[in-house]
């Protein structure tokens, strides 16, 4: 087993809605090793998206400790968390979250611009990413000129351009047809085969079953943590060439 990449201890998240309290996460203890492929599953309102937001440093817990690569990131300043998020965490969302006015290449380059990477290095890495994801002929197209599958490939390229330790995918096939969704999952799984930790949030049982480990959430608590040594998918995962 690889060293723990993510360690959550006693995590609680409470939201105040008027006079009531909603316990989105309850005393959660989870450890995820580097290189794992994990599906976070559960019905709507179970806490799975809240968990993803906390792991992605988009939200803070009310109690508990979160360690990422052995570092306590719970109490970092907003600026420090943003730096960790930029360098170590990649996001893939159901709705793509591409910047409408930017081209595919510019969307992919955006994390590097925010990180202050030199233009020459940005151009080289964007060109390589466009080639890896079969987007060479779409580099100058805006999101509204791309298909759903192409937009999600741009989103995955953007999520991985900083070579993160973990990719967080929130219902990554939710807006795609079956064939395109299968293609997107193969891309994500290929990244996992190459050592990137992959955490997928989904309510789709067949999608969750692809992962080697399933965390089943209910009412903000972890109800079941099950693993299997092998996952069965129709063909080997390969990145497009």
Automatic annotation (TrEMBL):
Protein name: ABC transporter related
The keyword Zinc is annotated on this UniProt entry: no
Matching PROSITE patterns: ABC_TRANSPORTER_1 (PS00211), ABC_TRANSPORTER_2 (PS50893)
Sequence ranges assigned to domain ABC transporter in this UniProt record: 6-240
Keyword flag Membrane: yes
PANTHER family linked: ABC TRANSPORTER ABCH.1 (PTHR24220:SF86), IMPORT ATP-BINDING PROTEIN (PTHR24220)
GO molecular function: ATP binding; ATP hydrolysis activity; transmembrane transporter activity
UniProt-listed GO biological process terms: response to antibiotic
UniProt record similarity statement: Belongs to the ABC transporter superfamily. Macrolide exporter (TC 3.A.1.122) family.
